Fold:
Amino acid sequence: MTTYPEFDQVKRIGILGTGTIGASWTAYFLAHGYAVTAWDPGDNWQEKLTAFVDTAWPQLTELGLGPGATKAALTMVDTPEEAVATADFVQENGPERLPIKQELYARIDDALPATTVLASSTSGLIMSDMAEGVKSAPRFVVGHPFNPPHLIPLVEVVAGKDSDPAAVDWAMGFYRHAGKHSIRINKEVPGHLANRLQAALWREATWAVANDLASIEDINAAMAQGPGLRLALMGPHMIFNLTGGKGGFQHFFDHFTPGIANWWSDMQGDPELTDALRDKIWAGLKDETGARSLDDLEHERDLRLVELLKMLQATKSQIKQP
Ligand SMILES: NC(=O)c1ccc[n+]([C@@H]2O[C@H](COP(=O)([O-])OP(=O)(O)OC[C@H]3O[C@@H](n4cnc5c(N)ncnc54)[C@H](O)[C@@H]3O)[C@@H](O)[C@H]2O)c1
Structure:
């Protein structure tokens, strides 16, 4: 039986792959007072990683740095073996390709310390496939974040067929200890949970384009200026608990579900993902975007995200806890 480290004994995080997600995780862990050892096989990855951490640091500072947090605690190494050898926890963020993950896991298998848990950021692969035949597989889990992980709290934790249940519990607890909001997904299914919810929504948003229900701008507003605001605070089931008025969820269920079942029966079939549909969405996005660049939009998203996260922190003390 493996004895995993106490959460406050975790000092050093190994980061494998420092692209979009790995760089953001690196910034997050540094800002929470951890030392990070990172590795990536790409060109100029050290410069890109340093630049990303510099850009994210003011946002992370605004949200509150952990004790002892410093960008100087980042070490960049030449091999994945070195990145994991002294790590108390490893976050893997290599390309979303099964053979690449399998090869990487086989390569680090002997170097990973015997009590270190490795979590993969994978959006769509399952650990049972990725860690097949790897000696350390009992300590491998999925820890799927949302982009950008240095701001979005959610991490979905999923076991593979060989994962030690205690390692899964440990990962759940460690993410919470490190300030993330981990949730446990009980089964390996494509897309885990949160991306399936997003994909279900996007299917309808895409169907609305294909069927000329509204302009792209108005479809975006239908969520961002409407239900998206309250969904960000409570999630789909809890929000419908309030839709039922004083009768709560029971009243909602009895009163509204016949209508919703009727809409569901109208929602059958996936919209065909043609080039014409892609071009139509793209043209609508360009109209809505106007003079703003992608960097401007990213800035807008992150600026508001930081304010939203600060608001959630600030109002916590005024809200009755469960
Ligand atoms: N982009 C997202 O929105 C998002 C969100 C959540 C999870 N993820 C997951 O995170 C992982 C990384 O995705 P990304 O968007 O950062 O991709 P990315 O292409 O931005 O980064 C991948 C990085 O892996 C490096 N790399 C190449 N070969 C490697 C190897 N053998 N071992 C380790 N690293 C290697 C590349 O140089 C690159 O820097 C994927 O598993 C993806 O599913 C992505």
User: Anything to note?
Assistant: The pocket of nicotinamide-adenine-dinucleotide is lined by residues 16-22, 40-42, 45, 93-96, 100, 104, 121-123, 144-145, 147 (CB under 6 Å). The chain is about 50% helix and 10% strand. The radius of gyration is 22 Å.
